[in-house]
Hints:
Blueprint: E1 2-4, H1 11-24, E2 28-33, E3 53-59, H2 68-77, H3 80-84, E4 91-97, H4 99-102
Parallel strand pairs: 1-2, 3-4
Antiparallel strand pairs: 2-3
Amino acid sequence: MSTAAAKTSGPLEQLIRERIEAEYTPAELVIENESHKHRHHAPMKGVASTETHFRLRIVSDKFAGQRLIQRQRGVYALFKEEMAMEGGIHAMALVTKTPEEASK
């Protein structure tokens, strides 16, 4: 499995990695913490967390036969609690592909 870890990953990023790896056994998993790009947005005022916005690229055989919306809903469902909690995950930008799609 190819994974790209941040230089210093926080607890939410580690949790994302663990859950994605357990559920999807990805051939490729890239997690980018983009929270610093969104600090100035109004909803982020007063939020101390440095782990609110993530970009994920997940390549997994488990996406075969699924439409894009099904893939994204499946990933989001893994983090329902973290997306609902104060200071938790505010947004995840997802790229979800099968190995065949990723090779094109």
